[in-house]
Amino acid sequence: MLAYNELQKRKLGEYVKKLKFAFYWAASCGGCEIAVLDINEKILDVVALTDVVFWPVAMDLKYKDVEAMPDESIDVCFFNGAIRTEEQEHMAKLLREKAKMLVAFGSCACQGGIPGLANVANKKEIFDIVYLRSPSTWNPNMVTPKTSTRVKEGELTLPEFHDTVKTLSQTVKVDYYLPGCPPPAPKVADAIDAIVKGTLPSRGSVLAPERSVCDECPRKKEKKSIPRIYRVYEITPDPNVCLLEQGVICMGPATRGGCEALCVKANMPCTGCGGPCPGEVEQGAAMMSALSSVLGLGEEKTYDVEKLIAQIRDPLGTFYMYSLPASIINRRIIRK
Fold it and tell me: Is the pTM of this model over 0.70?
């Protein structure tokens, strides 16, 4: 197989053998698996140029099959999902050994995603809510999952459930990042093209444009202040005017583009799945900074700042929906 730098130099049409691709699904909803197919007829080019050697959602392969593969025998592994369990951590480390190139595919792998919001709790608190305190749960013996259970047939095992959700790069070294929930099909196709043609940027790069969602949004931006905050069901926004200027919190100013502002064009606010804008360390803090500069300011009337802030019903879910594990403060402190 080709060494990593040789893979980067290859040009379309010069292949001696197909590239070997792998896909893996960790803590995520599964939408990223579908995004691979959303490239439509482009999938025929992928099939012609690559062999998929590991894809648990579509192929009957076992972990032992991957363990038996020589190190760096996989050219590219697209890894989606955050790291929530011992099994997912094991697979991240295993696939890092087996793949020349590891791509964090989707918001959960890149930033921790929606599963990462669980970092406001720990394992015990989560298990208590899910298995003991949920109104729809009948569990009179108060049983919660264990890593090992004896039954008459033998021992059953489950992977350890970690207290903290981590991003892929907090677990292993990542070569490239392809954000989005899921990544937009055109960007998936562009990434595959770049891999095949050997035109990828330097390692560690995000495979998305160097611009914000606001830069891709066609809405008019005129006002410099927001008198109040609305939740999406409380207002019918003008489809031609900036949602943020209408009082609907839109994460566009703090979110990397590449999606062509699809949600905003559908009259729904950006929720931030593209991750932080280029140069920003903290997506949530960047958005709070942008919002503070226009919230209730520049008007003749004096506003109660605390009252305005109170209108933001879910600050964590609003500003850190996809990025809590990747943030500076990435979990609640649990004192044992």
Answer: yes
